[in-house]
Amino acid sequence: MWSLLQACPTIFQLTCLTPLQSNCLHFFKFQPRVASYLKPPSLFTYFVPSSANEQLKMEKSWQNHFFPVLLTIFFFSPFPFQTSLALQSDYIRQPPGKVIVTPHHRSKSDPQQVHISLVGKDQMRITWITEDKDVPSKVEYGKVSGRYNAMAVGEQTSYHYFFYSSGKIHHVKIGPLEPGTTYYYRCGGLGPEFSFKTPPRTFPIEFVVVGDLGQTEWTASTLAHVHSKDYHVFLLPGDLSYADTQQPLWDSFGRLVEPYASRRPWMVTEGNHEIEIFPIIYPRGFKAYNARWLMPYQECGSTSNLYYSFDVAGSHIIMLGSYTDFDETSAQYKWLEADLGKVDRTKTPWVVVLLHAPWYNTNSAHKGEGESMRKAMEDLLYKARVDVVFAGHVHAYERFTRIYDNKADPCGPVYITIGDGGNREGLALTFENPTSELSLYREPSFGHGRLRILDETRAHWSWHRNNDSDSYVADEVWLESLATTKSCCANTGERDGSKVNKDEL
């Protein structure tokens, strides 16, 4: 019975949710697409309640539907052939990579899966999990190791997914904190001491960007390369643990990244592998993601943990949700429009956007999946003179020139796909030939990127392969802030692709 119930979520996703759960199908020789079923999401209207009361009724009534659902799945559903709901692609995945399962050797009261994230102007959120539910949600911290002259108390939560229980998830905000300063902290009054360094108040600042991370030997290589050189903030545009409803893999992922995520703030957004919908019982999705990876959405006026923004050292960073509504009537669209309208480029001359499904892509994998979102939101980003847009989802690296509406445009963002963090599904090896003139560099290799913003006008982007030494740069480009580019300062820029300098964007 246990194995039957464990298999249930995956099987139901394959039969009913293929347009949203496309990456779960790596063992079939087809690849459904996402975007056409997200706008409008009519296919899933039955499973997405319109109010909290409706959600509660559905969750309380799942017992009445559970066994009929199981019978339907196993006796009536031809799931290996259920591809008619989604568009087709000729992309075939590599065999899956070996997953690293990180064991837990601490006591039930000791903190595990510790990670930190920026929240507000001068605060940090500390998140950790304990098996012991009586451990208090408090953090002691200070500037000297072993001497904690400040303490903050936060909140705790937990969640269940079928027979899995998460333990107690603690979230505590600490601060105010000084910029560029090392702090030592202890979670729950017990366990080991951790430390982190706050980002600087102003330039220069360095971001690491890694997408589709997972928890494989490739992941371990990526993280080792990342942390061979210092940086300030880690940005992850979706697909974290690749748990895909197997909840213990969320714990394993948390333990794998703890040595890194407890030392530098990790700012993440969701990918398709975070959805984890099970109709009727768990119809809303993102249950584990929202409980474990709480981001500063409330501080920026967002109503959802799936999209938010924050300021750090002269940069405005926007994390968008590819797997929630994004058309002009949606809450996300209205929030983004308002958020961009409040940006003061004299204070934050750099604006960077991260999302999961790329808007521009010459790889055979996931072709066109970001098109609906691009058509809905690209004008907002263009008018606001967004400097760079990072995406994941495609398991390769690709850098485009500045683009607007499928044309080279000196006032559009630079688009970069960096979904090569090390996930178990392997690399997306096939690119279109001949290549588009808009695509300046592309390569299916595992690696990570670094965005070093030097001052109000100049930044340097570099991409580093895992197969190379830590200092080797496989691709790089110098960027100029569009806030300081004279021809792009107005809301309507000059659209002359011939004036795009491919060596300096």
TrEMBL record:
Domain (Calcineurin-like phosphoesterase) ranges: 207-397
Domain Purple acid phosphatase C-terminal: 412-475
GO molecular function, one term: acid phosphatase activity
Class of the enzyme per the UniProt entry, highest EC level: hydrolase
Keyword Nucleus: no
Keywords (A to Z) from UniProt: Glycoprotein, Hydrolase, Iron, Signal, Zinc
Keyword Metal-binding carried by entry: no
CC cofactor: Fe cation; Zn(2+)
Catalytic activity: a phosphate monoester + H2O = an alcohol + phosphate
Pfam families per UniProt: Metallophos (PF00149), Metallophos_C (PF14008), Pur_ac_phosph_N (PF16656)
Domain of life: Eukaryota
Record-annotated Purple acid phosphatase N-terminal domain positions: 111-198
E.C. no: 3.1.3.2
Signal peptide: none
Gene3D superfamilies: 3.60.21.10, Purple acid phosphatase-like, N-terminal (2.60.40.380)
InterPro entries found in the cross-reference section: Calcineurin-like_PHP, Metallo-depent_PP-like, MPP_PAP, PAPs-like, PAPs_C, PAPs_N, Purple_acid_Pase-like_N
Family: Belongs to the metallophosphoesterase superfamily. Purple acid phosphatase family.
Protein name (Swiss-Prot/TrEMBL): Purple acid phosphatase
Taxonomic source organism: Theobroma cacao
Source taxonomy: Eukaryota, Viridiplantae, Streptophyta, Embryophyta, Tracheophyta
